[in-house]
Amino acid sequence: EQGLQLLELSGSVEEDYIRIARCFEATRQRCCRLEQDGRRAREQLARVEAERAALEVKLKHARNQVEVEMKKRHRAEAELEKQERKLQLVLELLMQEPWGNEALSREQCSVLSALAGRRLGAALAPVRRSSAVDESCQSLLSHSDISYDRTEDDVVRS
């Protein structure tokens, strides 16, 4: 009777061992899959971080270029205003001098009178801005809307 019980017990123990072995194998296979997934995720993360770093460099260059171009534009606009003021003064001087009307041809006088009547600044205003850039509407890329806050660039990345 005891022998029979041992045989029955050993049969169930054997089945338990087989079930445990199958569970261990399933767990091992799952761990292998997770390890491969983790490796792929790390590789993808490395690629994305490299791409992000490259884009940050491009952003930095673009910000610098915008800054340089804005400075050039402000200098050019200041020079234009300076030249307009000089031209306006010359025009006013020519129109006020009695000898100015005699020295100039009728056509030149009429052109100067027309310019003086419309004010020189208003006459040159349409030419002032480049036609390639439409600045009449609020653009998302308007230089007044661009943030030059560099605090985002200084964030420590882990």
UniProtKB/TrEMBL annotation:
Coiled-coil intervals, chain numbering: 38-97
Keyword terms: Coiled coil
Gene Ontology molecular functions: GTPase activator activity
Any one Gene Ontology cellular component term annotated for this protein: spindle midzone
Gene Ontology terms describing biological process: mitotic cytokinesis; mitotic spindle midzone assembly; Rho protein signal transduction
PANTHER family: RAC GTPASE-ACTIVATING PROTEIN 1
Protein name, entry field: RGAP1 protein
